[in-house]
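debug: dumping io for the single-chain case to check the tokenizer round-trip. Nothing else runs in this session.
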Amino acid sequence: MERLVIEELTIFETVNNFNAAEAYWRDNSYCYIKGYIPKDALSPLESNFSPESKCKKKRFYYELWEHHTFAIWSYKIEKEKFEWEEAVNLLKVHRDNKMPIEMKITNDVKDWFIYTQVNEYLA
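debug: decoded output
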């Protein structure tokens, strides 16, 4: 007997990914978005990552987490005194609760945000 596997696909997951061409770039160097943190953006503690690890999957999770944390911190630090640990905590809360958060994305790392669902490109 064969089993039929049905996967749930949503338009949200395919249509709203970060698109650099739609962003409002300032000085061709950075943009602001309000978006959702990818579920795979995991801290070293959450993914059991260590720099000596040869596991590419864990390294990817860590780097995704690092770039999103930095994007949150970069956005917040422009407006108020803001500590790195606060950005780490905000990322976890927003990721786990599937809530959008403001981020500053720099042109040199924009490729790390192709998995980021955008709620709004901020002007």
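debug: round-trip ok. The helical segments are 11-15, 44-47, 56-77, 84-96.
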